[in-house]
């Protein structure tokens, strides 16, 4: 197993802050903590090169350093790339994260790094990478490098990687399936007994967290406002021309209601699946209330009803899609000079 | 209630000239069984196949799996409200052919969320290791319904066929000594002698109003649950035929077999018998159709747990997909507000495998969660030597190799508590 | 603003200005009403939606 190790100027023994501006350089074999890594990797693995860069240089010339480093790692025919451990050094952690991500993306080889939970690089990269929790104390170097070595070997050998607590990496916030001994029913009863007796228990999932959405100011004068209808109930024109997927939709569509004061079931279909579509298929106004909105426009309650409605499907749609969909739809809405949106959701 | 299960373990199923139980072999007269099932005019034809564990065999689409069980004469009826009058289930002795199962197929998958193949019974390989059904001996019932029947009439035909078959087979055990008997100590909120031990209730959703039930769809004592409020039931009622799965899919799967062998109820009983808790009873409830309905049902269920069962803790399970998640969490939140500790069982439905996308609720007090997985697991099923299925097209499709998600292998992602596939955060 | 029947979900994701819809399967309708009554229900619901747009927000 050929291993390349990345260190900053300090851990490579070149100097402290005063040397933070040094450019990327390569040393044959193992230097500094890389020697420890080499030792702890044991037989069959060797650190063939140590790449060193000043923390400031790495931040200020990130693209160049990434490109150079990836080329060098490729040249060395590395099977594994290791960076750090960075402890709580922020620039170092950010660089390690960026370099590991790039190496993994471009060369497809396993990568491991280490830093403390509070390191800014941790938040940014914990989902994409295996980051060994190094804590903040460099006195733990040996222990931390040992864990990095162990995890690195598992990744190279494509062995099963255990849970964060077992392997020592920062919780990545990802999900995977695992066949276990006990049925869900048994685990449920075990858990309630511990909870009701005040004993410690480990929940298999943690409640969700959503950042607050800032509230736009109210519409001052509706009679001059342009209002638009949007839905996530998957109402699309017959034939679903934009091929909006019923679940985990990656697309949204914009459909003309110019001159119409009513939606007719024969013109539309529903691409969703999470609700019984019969009622909306019969009369799509039950989902996109065009008739009511048009009346309110005609009677002057609202200034103008925008001539299109937007539709997508909200069913089983992960945040990784819906964040983008929401952003794109919001951009379109703004572009059209719409003042207010009525979003109807099933 | 006083329920006793009389167990007759089955090691082999085979066809023969008459139906009888010979120690651990159940011999089945398929002609007689066929005549019994065809008395239902909705069925035009029916075929039977026997499937044993370890075989390279696949059957599907599966409509339901039922454990062969029959009540001793003079006790409560078999599947009350469906096969007999709606008398209270759960008293007296029930004969159980343990290790056997009646597996009813449907001509087309009735499970909208599971695609064309519906749920499939897989008897060997990696998927089989993850399902409790692969270690059972199955009598597979392959029905053909009369053309022109409405969907709910077709589903009713399948349902009745499975139940009738299961009862008929288990009746072979009547008059024979069981290998063991399992009495359930009567439980309930008023039982004495359990002071100082946690009083625990089970709240189980049995239907989701994301869709309306068919008018004659039997779920609770033959009722379709439309308009019902949550109800207190003795646990033995769940175990002894009062509840059947809705025709509408439970995202992870729910079968009659795991109402009969309800993993949560049986575990609560086990811990009750061990003196670790006092099982005070159960509430059967429904996931609402809208906000009002949800608020109404959740409060009613929580009130029953609080005032009628006087529970100190409750475990909750759901039926259906995403929206019932919200009912489950809301009921748990209300209970926590009453000082009743809760633990809930949910099923992973995140599509991008990120924890952020995983849960649909965010109540800090609902912090004891059992997380059923399966969404991230797909298997490539190899060519099977034997395919049991109602049509040539389905045989072609299921013959393999075919790639299926874990939720398409029946039993793997079961929402009644039988699943061992956990969604793990890493 | 948002019209939905799944209030807990809307609350959880932080949707501002949410008005309760009339059921998952017909959020701005009601299949059990006659056509005139249903239109009236829809009119009222959309008017409520407009009120929400003018409000400082809260569900």
Number of strands of chain B: 23
Give the integer mean of the pLDDT values of chain A: 93
Widest beta sheet: strand line-up of chain A: 2-3-1-4-5-6
- As a percent range, the share of helical residues of chain B equals 10-25%
Count of helix runs of chain A: 11
Helicity level of chain A:
25-40%
The proportion of strand residues of chain A reads: 15-25%
Oligomer: heterotrimer
What is the C-alpha radius of gyration of chain A, as a whole number of Å? 28 Å
Report the biggest beta sheet of chain B as strand number plus sense, adding barrel if it closes.
Answer: 6 strands, mixed
Q: Tell me the distance between the termini of chain B.
A: 45 Å
Q: What structural class results from the helix and strand content of chain A? A: alpha/beta
Strands of the largest sheet of chain B, in order across it? Answer: 15-16-14-17-18-19
How far is the first residue's CA from the last residue's CA of chain A?
Answer: 54 Å
Order of helices and strands of chain A: EEHEHHEHEHEHHEHEEEEHHEHE
Assign an overall shape of chain B. Answer: globular
Kindly state the mean pLDDT of chain B as a whole number? 95
Write up what this structure looks like.
The complex is a heterotrimer of chains A (346), B (426) and C (59). Chain A has 346 residues and is an alpha/beta fold. Chain A has 11 helices and 13 strands. In chain A, α4 links the parallel β4 and β5. In chain A, α1 packs across α6 and α3 crosses α4. The radius of gyration of chain A is 28 Å and the shape is elongated. In chain B, a hairpin with a 2-residue loop joins β3 and β4. In chain B, α7 packs across α8. The radius of gyration of chain B is 21 Å and the shape is globular. With 59 residues, chain C is mostly helical. Chain C contains 2 helices and 2 strands. The relative contact order of chain C is 0.22. At the B-C interface, α8 of B face α1 of C. β13 of chain A pairs parallel with β1 of chain C, so a sheet runs across the interface.
List the keywords:
heterotrimer; A: 346 residues; alpha/beta; six-stranded mixed beta sheet; four-stranded mixed beta sheet; 13 strands; 19% strand; B: 426 residues; 23 strands; globular
């Amino acid at each position: 197993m050929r291993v390349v190790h990345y260190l900053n100027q300090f851990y490579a023994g070149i100097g402290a802050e005063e040397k933070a501006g040094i450019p990327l350089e390569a040393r044959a074999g193992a230097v500094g903590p890389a020697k420890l890594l080499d030792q702890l990797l044991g037989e069959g693995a060797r650190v063939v090169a140590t790449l060193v860069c000043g923390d400031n240089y790495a931040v200020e010339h990130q693209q160049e350093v990434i490109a150079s480093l990836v080329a060098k790692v490729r040249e060395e025919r590395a099977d594994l790339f290791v960076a750090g451990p960075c402890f709580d050094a922020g620039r170092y952690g950010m660089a390690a994260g960026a370099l590991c991500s790039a190496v993994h993306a471009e060369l497809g080889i396993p990568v491991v790094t280490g830093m403390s939970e509070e390191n800014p690089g941790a938040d940014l990269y914990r989902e994409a990478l295996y980051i060994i929790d190094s804590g903040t104390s460099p006195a733990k170097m040996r222990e931390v490098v040992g864990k990095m070595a162990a995890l690195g070997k598992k990744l190279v050998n494509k062995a099963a990687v255990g849970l964060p607590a077992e392997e020592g990496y920062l919780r990545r916030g990802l999900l995977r399936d695992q066949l276990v001994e006990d049925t869900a029913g048994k685990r449920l009863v075990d858990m309630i007994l511990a909870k009701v007796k005040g004993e410690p228990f480990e929940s298999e999932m943690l409640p969700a967290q959503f950042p607050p959405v800032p509230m736009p100011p109210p519409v001052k004068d509706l009679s001059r406002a342009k209002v638009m209808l949007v839905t996530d109930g998957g109402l699309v024109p017959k034939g679903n021309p934009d091929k909006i997927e019923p679940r985990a939709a990656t697309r949204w569509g914009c459909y003309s209601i110019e001159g119409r004061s009513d939606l007719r079931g024969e013109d539309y279909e529903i691409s969703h699946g999470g609700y019984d579509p019969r009622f909306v298929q019969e009369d799509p106004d039950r989902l996109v209330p065009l008739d009511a909105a048009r009346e309110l426009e005609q009677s002057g309650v609202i200034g103008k009803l925008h001539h299109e409605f937007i539709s997508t499907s909200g069913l089983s749609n992960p945040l990784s899609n819906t964040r983008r969909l929401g952003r794109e739809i919001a951009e379109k809405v703004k572009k059209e000079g719409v003042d207010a949106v009525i979003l109807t959701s099933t | 209630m006083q329920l006793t299960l009389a167990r007759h373990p089955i090691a082999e199923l085979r066809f023969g000239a008459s139906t009888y139980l010979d120690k651990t072999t159940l011999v089945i007269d398929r002609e007689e069984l066929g005549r019994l099932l065809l008395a239902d005019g909705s069925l035009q034809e029916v075929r039977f196949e026997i499937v044993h564990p370890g075989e390279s065999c696949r059957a599907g689409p599966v409509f339901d799996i039922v454990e062969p069980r029959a009540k001793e004469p003079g006790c409560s009826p078999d599947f009350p409200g469906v096969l007999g009058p709606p008398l209270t289930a759960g008293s007296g002795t029930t004969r159980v052919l343990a290790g056997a199962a009646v597996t009813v197929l449907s001509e087309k998958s009735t499970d909208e969320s599971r695609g064309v193949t519906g749920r499939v019974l897989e008897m060997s390989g990696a998927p089989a290791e993850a399902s409790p059904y692969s270690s059972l001996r199955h009598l597979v019932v392959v029905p053909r319904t009369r053309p022109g029947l409405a969907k709910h009439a077709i589903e009713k035909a399948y349902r009745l066929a499975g139940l009738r078959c299961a009862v008929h087979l288990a009746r072979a055990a009547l008059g024979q000594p069981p290998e063991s008997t399992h009495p359930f100590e009567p439980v309930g909120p008023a039982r004495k002698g359990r002071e100082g031990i946690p009083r625990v209730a089970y709240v189980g959703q049995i239907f989701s109003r994301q869709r309306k039930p068919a008018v004659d769809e039997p779920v609770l004592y033959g009722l379709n649950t439309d308009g019902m409020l949550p109800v207190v039931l003795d646990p033995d009622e769940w175990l002894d035929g009062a509840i059947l799965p809705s025709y509408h899919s439970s995202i992870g799967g729910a079968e009659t077999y795991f109402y009969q062998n309800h993993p949560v109820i049986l575990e609560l009983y086990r811990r009750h018998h061990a003196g670790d808790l006092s099982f005070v009873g159960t509430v059967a409830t429904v996931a609402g159709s809208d906000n009002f309905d949800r608020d109404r049902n959740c409060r009613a269920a929580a009130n029953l747990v609080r005032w009628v069962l006087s529970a100190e803790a409750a475990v909750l399970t759901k039926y259906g997909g995403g929206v019932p998640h919200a009912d489950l969490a809301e009921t748990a939140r209300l209970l926590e507000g009453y000082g009743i500790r809760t633990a809930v069982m949910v099923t992973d439905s995140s599509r991008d495998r990120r924890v952020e996308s995983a849960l649909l609720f965010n109540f800090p007090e609902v912090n004891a969660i059992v997380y059923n997985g399966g969404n991230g697991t797909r298997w490539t099923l190899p060519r099977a030597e034997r395919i049991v299925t109602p049509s040539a097209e389905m045989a072609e499709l299921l013959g393999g190799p075919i790639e299926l998600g874990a939720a398409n292998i029946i039993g793997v992602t079961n929402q009644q508590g039988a699943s061992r596939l956990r969604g793990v955060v890493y | 603003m948002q019209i939905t029947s799944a209030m807990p979900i809307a609350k959880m994701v932080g949707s501002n200005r949410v008005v309760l819809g009339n059921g998952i399967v017909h959020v701005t309708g009601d299949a059990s009403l006659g056509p005139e009554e249903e239109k009236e229900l829809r009119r009222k619901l959309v008017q409520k939606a407009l009120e929400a747009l003018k409000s400082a927000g809260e569900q």
